[in-house]
Amino acid sequence: MSFLKFLGFGGDQAQARKDSGHSDAIRRIVKELESMDRDKARYLASFAYILSRIANADMDISDAEVQKMEELVAKFGRLSKEQALLVVQIAKNQNLLFGSTENFVVTRDFKEMSTKEQRKELLHCLFAVSAADNSISSVEEEQIREIADEFGFDHSEYIEIRSGYSHLREVMKDLPGNG
User: Fold this and answer.
1) How many whole angstroms from its chain centre is CA 96?
2) Whether the Cβ atoms of residue 132 and residue 52 lie closer than 8 Å to each other
């Protein structure tokens, strides 16, 4: 199964896009992604989807959040900037279309295919995406906590990871003496 088919962009839809006049650069990127190892493609698709879940937690995916997701997908997926852009756009669109019904399923699948260390890395990435605008909203923080629970992290493990981002937490900025 190709990477794009895994994300729901296969079959007749893929052919229709080919026929609609996409640039050669996009075609090359799509071809590279389709040739990716299936397990790596599933991991990367899930990783990007979960990032988009956090970006959309407040019902607004900012340009800063998209840029941070692209940076993280490129880094952790070892992809070119162009490939990461495509992966993030696909994951973002899938989350916007199916997020409410697919969030738990994708997170569960990521848990099954990843190590605990990879899940910790992803939690750090989730905080980085939510802080892309220099503030972590309460809604974003609640979503990250929910994902940490779905990953099987206990409260102390979650707090340990969150502590590195405390200065960006919206709830902390409102306290007297904090700026």
Assistant:
1) 12
2) no
Residue from 89, 161, 93 nearest 131 by CA: 161
**Tokens representing residue 43 in the block:** 């991991």
174: phi then psi, degrees, rounded to nearest 5: -80, -10
Q: Is residue 31 part of a domain?
A: no
User: What is the spatial distance between Cα 9 and Cα 153, in angstroms, rounded to a whole number?
Assistant: 33
Per-residue pLDDT tens for 107-126?
999 999 999 999 999 999 99
Q: Can you state the angle between helices 63-77 and 38-55, rounded to 10 degrees? A: 160
Across 20-24, 25-29, 121-125, 167-171, least confident range = 20-24
* Number of Cβ atoms within 10 Å of the Cβ of 53: 24
Instruction: Write the single-letter amino acid at 40.
Output: K
Q: Residue 17: which pLDDT band, with cuts at 50, 70 and 90?
A: very low
In a domain, 146, yes or no: yes
Provide the domain count of the chain: 1
Residue 70 domain-assigned (yes or no): yes
Task: Give the domain range for residue 126.
Answer: 38-173
Instruction: Identify the residue whose tokens are 């990367």.
Output: 44
Choose among 172, 111, 114: nearest CA to 147.
111
The answer to whether residue 147 is domain-embedded is: yes
**Residue 122 CB coordination number (10 Å):** 25
Assign residue 152 the CATH number of its domain: 1.10.3680.10
